[in-house]
Amino acid sequence: MTNGRAGLWLIGAYGGVGTTVAVGLSGLARGIAGSTGLVTALPAFERCGLANLADLVIGGHELRQTSYVEAADILCLKAGIFSADLLKACRDDLANASAAIRPGLAIGAGKCIEEMADWPGMTRRESCRATIARLQKDWSDFRAAHDLAQIVVINVASTEPLCPPAPCHDSLAALENALDRGDRAGLPASSLYAYAAIDAGYPYVNFTPSQGASTPALEQLAIERSCPIAGQDGKTGETLIKSVLAPMFLARNLQVLSWFGQNLIGNRDGLVLRNPANKSAKLASKDQVIAGVLGYQPQTQVGIEYVPSLDDWKTAWDFIHFQGFLGVKMSMQFTWQGCDSVLAAPLVIDLARLALLAQRRGERGVMRHLACFFKSPLGVEEHDFFKQFEALLEYASISGNGAGDEVTEVLNNARA
Ligand SMILES: NC(=O)c1ccc[n+]([C@@H]2O[C@H](COP(=O)([O-])OP(=O)(O)OC[C@H]3O[C@@H](n4cnc5c(N)ncnc54)[C@H](O)[C@@H]3O)[C@@H](O)[C@H]2O)c1
Question: Whole-model pTM above 0.85?
């Protein structure tokens, strides 16, 4: 059975993650790429009624003028992550997908991101309401051009600086008021995108640490517009391992004394995160997992350094000092070397399919069952990967059996 074609709209379309999603979807649809790395390809999701991968159509917003073909060629040349055969087979699909990429919104994304914008008009002043109307028109044009039954909007743009608290975060009324006045305080670009998507009724997923929809005001809008939302900051590497290892120390009653992590990253994401304001948003997201699982706060530190020679290949090294029986101190270390975009892209596709499913099932507000995908899961305190994954499997089994939305609601509330 098919659910019709659905749009996967990427904010930050031509980045490493966005480009790998485009190449991956084309390769999957053409039968030349396998589904390894896709959580939704596991047997547990077979009967959920997820969108067919071949039915997903790519569109997106960007700040930089390039194309999927160029972006994929650069990733291939610098990081060697796509085979020549795969790129050759996907070329026409990538060219078609580039035709659906529209100029986005740079204002409010922070100085370092604004400086990357080279699409003409990108930094022009326009009112908040005019920006929202422009983004929504892009989506309705996309929907009409490709005859789409649904659209899901996923933020894979560069990480913005941390946003200080503002009154427009607290309630929808205060937010609407700020938008009417054109007051951008507390409204980074990611939150304007989120408002525009949710207001138009499109599920919104934030794969980045940027503020996006993570305010009470935007959560309220999601409930009012019957729109599912999720975030934030995809859990793909070092933090994923932390959320797997920390439960082991807890279960064996071993006391973690200190946990130090260092991340070396060489792609454009690393370049943006070199900026202290942008880095602080990422560090805040990465450093909460250990205490969240253990229930106490050992000494922790996370570092991120930009090492251009690594390009898309990230290295994380962690040192864990712990105490066992009779007070004896021991340690463990691990090194994780992964390809950033290849780890992230399948999860973006998973999140798109699960968000589209949630909307078809009439769910609204935070999709708490998606916590295992995120470093800072919205609406969920649980950081233990296994418990988070169990919640996802439970959701899949209920969806697969065609149970009613009330059951899902009960499940979501129980996990809050
Ligand atoms: N790769 C991973 O494993 C991983 C894991 C978790 C989170 N993330 C987050 O995902 C995001 C994307 O990562 P990436 O490696 O693709 O980064 P990237 O720098 O390669 O891509 C980001 C893209 O977003 C564009 N962009 C920036 N601001 C924009 C805006 N306001 N509107 C439209 N486009 C905008 C940039 O021009 C760029 O093309 C980052 O925020 C990163 O922290 C990545």
Answer: yes
